[in-house]
Amino acid sequence: MIGKLYLIPTTLGETEPLEVMPLSVKKVIEQIDYYIVENEKSARRFIKKISPKKSQPSLQIMLLDKYAEEIETRKYLDICKEGINVGLLSEAGVPAVADPGASIVKLAHEKGIQVVPLVGPSSILMAMMSSGMNGQNFAFNGYLPIEKGERKKAIKDLEKLSKDKNQSQIFIETPYRNEKMLSDLKATLTPTTNLCIAADITLPTEFIKTLMIKDWKHQQPDLHKKPAIFIIHK
Question: Where does the Tetrapyrrole methylase domain lie (predicted)?
């Protein structure tokens, strides 16, 4: 029997895991000792939090960070041939969505390994659910350009795309640049374009609000160093 690849969600911040994900995640973690992760320290901390009695020395951690060589990562699922299950953990939220874990999931399909996604918090989907915008047609665009001219063009292009396709446009920013992003959106988008800002999702400081740009001009939420999702719809 070939082992499976379990896609294991993590919390979006310092919340109790079982407040935001089902018991099935805890049960799977208690059964798996082999993990592919972005950061060993945070992965071990999450595993210990959701399953305090699990033996930390028994964990076999394989790193999928920016230093990981493809020649090595392609061997990460070889253990499945021995019938051993492997868990793929994101740094935050669900694996393989806006996350380097997608390469491991692709590898699993290539090797004929069953992929098992587990339910957990996804900041992208939770922001979309909460926005009041078109959830039938939306796109995630990752990070926008940093250079001012390129960023302005990207914002205008997304606004036009939203209008032409009736499509909600989702993107993110490095947390310490959130407030600059909001300033750029206020200065670039037309007054009647809707903007949703969803920050610190699932945390006690959660902030989710959708307003037209003309109304955002009178508001300045504290977004500094807070994980945030931005959604626009024209």
Answer: 20-209
Residues, the chain, total?
A: 234
Distance from C-alpha of 179 to C-alpha of 122, rounded to nearest angstrom: 22
What are the φ and ψ backbone dihedral angles of 3, each rounded to 5 degrees?
-65, 165
177 CB contacts (<8 Å, ≥6 apart)? Answer: 146
Instruction: Give alpha helix (H) positions in 102-199.
Output: 102-110, 123-131, 148-165, 178-188
| Contact yes or no for 204/182 (Cβ under 8 A) | no
CA distances from residue 22 to 55, 97, 120 in whole angstroms, order as listed: 22, 19, 7
Residue 70: per-residue pLDDT: 86
SS (H, E, C) 193-213: CEEEEEECCCCCCCEEEEEEH
Q: Which structure tokens are listed for 67?
A: 């230093």
Question: Which amino acid makes up residue 24?
Answer: S
Q: Name the residue among 87, 74, 71, 76 with its Cα closest to residue 31.
A: 87
Distance CA 52, CA 176 (A): 33
Beta bridge partners of 230: 171, 197
Give me the average pLDDT of each 10-residue run along the chain (234 residues).
96 93 96 96 95 93 88 94 96 91 96 97 97 97 95 98 98 95 96 98 96 94 95 97
In a 3-state reduction of DSSP, which class is residue 192? coil
User: Which uninterrupted H or E stretch holds 23?
Assistant: helix 23-31
Question: What residues have CB less than 8 Å from 157, skipping those under 6 apart?
Answer: none
